[in-house]
Amino acid sequence: MDRAAFDAVYAEHVDGIFTLAHRLTGNWATAEDVTSETFLVVWRSRALVADDDRPLKPWLWGIATHQAMNARRSRRRVAAFLARRQRGDVVPDFADEAVERLDDAEVLAQAARAIAALRRPEAEVLALCVWSGLTYAEAADALGVPVGTVRSRLSRARARLRELVPDAADAPDTTPADRIVRGGRA
Amino acid sequence: MNDTAHDVADELQRSHPAPAAITLSSEHRAGIARRVEVAIDRRDARSRIAIGIAAPATVLACAVAVTAVAVLALTGGTPVAPTADRPVLASSAATRVLERAAERALATPSQAVREDQFVYTRSAAITNEGSLGGAVVLGPVHERETWLGQDPGPFGWQDDVIREHGQDWPIESGGASVAGPTRPTYAWLDALPTDPDALLDTLARSASPVDGQTQDQAVFDLIGTLVLEQLVPPRTAAALYRAATRIPGVDVDRRATDALGRAGIGISRADERFGTRTTWVLDESTSTLLGARWYVTHADGSPDTLFGATAVLETAVVDTAGVAPGSAA
Predict the structure, then answer these.
(1) Where are the transmembrane segments (chain B) (predicted)?
(2) Which stretches of chain B score pLDDT less than 50?
(3) Of the N and C termini of chain A, which has fewer Cβ atoms inside 10 Å?
């Protein structure tokens, strides 16, 4: 993969990867980190990509998922997480750009609660199979696990979500999405 | 379980619908692309410097061949005599400095490092914040911490972290990567040949010149990667310093300072292909490694332009990635 091919992959997938990263981290700045890290991995692995004619998306989504879950873990570890606006990049806040309607904010808040309630393997299959529309085979490819494992993780995700957030969809939402998003940016 | 998997996914899609897909603005896309470029630049800087400047530069370093006998004469009663298989090609001044560094390394204790632990380093760093291929823009001196997993297996790197600019950056290897030249663990370093000539043979097989770079430069860069921001077993460190004396074009820079301005003596080599120069900075009295500096050289003879520097502050072995020595997990 040369630079032009890399740029084409970037243009095609940057929105999708950012969306996935944002769903998994609930944080605009972290999603930016995850997205740039994902493409850094793509760049460093470009020799491998050139020799592999399998579809790119499961591989990309797998990397992004791995990066996003690592970023969540890192954030938990770092007591004082200092978000940094690098090189003067000033981006419009998440609330201005991504969420135009209140329903979107509620869906996003519910998604953030679900990810927080699940164990990592379950959160990964929720994001890939349910939200990103990957097939089980693609998700298995992305995560490097057998298809049966994807299925069982999904079942566990459903059981856990039923158990932990039984009325999440009904309860009035006291956690506006922008609070979740800004939580890591203080 | 009676459900088919698709029922599960469908049910979850209804109970937990996907949040709206995000379409980034063109400014956002460009901003993230810029960060990828800066990150590519920074990662490359950690192992080898490539900032898109490929103009050939004047070679300042001059290879001076001296014999292995001269090394013995200079170093007196050193317990590990260099073998005479390869000539010493570094300048005599550089050879003296490297030999002292080797002796100093041998006088330090080795460490016990388990496979489930992490090698921790804390450094001060000055990095190039300019864009790929653009002019050098030096950022402020800042702290950088790294945690490098010691599990030799293909995914032993998966918890590796660089903490820099107030954020944790996972160090991705993009796939399976066992302990080796690109992911040196303490145990892997400890297993390297301690004879400098045998070590140089090993390094020469691992070093891969990039884009017309010379093999000598690739080996010099590899040695730098292995000793900088790393914890190196004493015998390996000594052998690495001695191996560097077998590389032509290695010379001293008497006015070298590290990223914190600590003065030392530099071991320097110019990369003609990329028009850059790397200097390892060693403490003049103790011969310990203080840090490194990277320069862009200029064909017209004007002074080299600094584009990166580091200063080692601390190295340690810790149990948990992301947790500095002495702090609670």
Answers:
(1) 49-74
(2) 1-3, 5, 45-84, 132-133
(3) C
CA angle B114, B118, B122 (to 5 degrees): 140
Which strand (E) or helix (H) includes residue A43? helix A28-44
Torsion, Cα B199 B200 B203 B204, to 10 degrees, reads -150
Residue B308 parent element (H or E): strand B305-318
What is the per-residue DSSP string for B118-134?
EEEEEEEEE-B-SPTTS
- Distance, in Å, from the CA atom of B189 to the CA atom of B232, rounded to the nearest integer, reads 7
Which DSSP string corresponds to A121-167?
A: HHHHHIIIIIIS---HHHHHHHHTS-HHHHHHHHHHHHHHHHHH-TT
Contact present, B11 and A158 (Cβ < 8 Å):
yes
Angle between helices A28-44 and B26-47 in degrees, nearest 10: 50
Answer whether A97 sits within 8 Å of B129, measured CB to CB: no
Query: For residue B308, what are the β-bridge partners?
Result: B294
Residue A62 confidence (pLDDT): 92
Task: Report CA A169 to chain centroid distance, whole Å.
Answer: 21
> DSSP assignment of B105-165, as one string?
HHTSPP----TT-EEEEEEEEE-B-SPTTS---B---EEEEEEEE---STTTTTT-EEEET
Q: How far is A93 from chain B (nearest CA, A)?
A: 11
Shortest distance, CA A20 to any CA of chain B (angstroms): 8
**What's chain B's length in residues?**
329
Report yes or no: B238 and B103 within 8 Å, Cβ to Cβ: yes
Instruction: State the residue for tokens 């140089």.
Output: B200
A15/B13 touch (CB, cutoff 8 Å), yes or no: no
For B183, which DSSP code?
B
Take residue B255 and report the two structure tokens written for it: 């006015």
| The total number of structural domains that make up chain A | 1
The structure tokens listed for B88 are 């010493």
pLDDT in tens, B25-54: 888 888 888 878 776 665 554 443 322 222
Phi then psi dihedrals of residue A132, to 5 deg: -100, -5
Identify all chain B residues contacting A71, using CB atoms and an 8 Å cutoff: 168, 170
Rounded distance, CA A119 to CA B198, Å? 49
Measured CA to CA, the distance from residue B306 to residue B251 in angstroms comes to 18
Domain holding A44, by residue range, is 3-183
Give tens-digit pLDDT for A21-62.
999 988 888 888 889 889 988 887 776 666 666 788 998 999
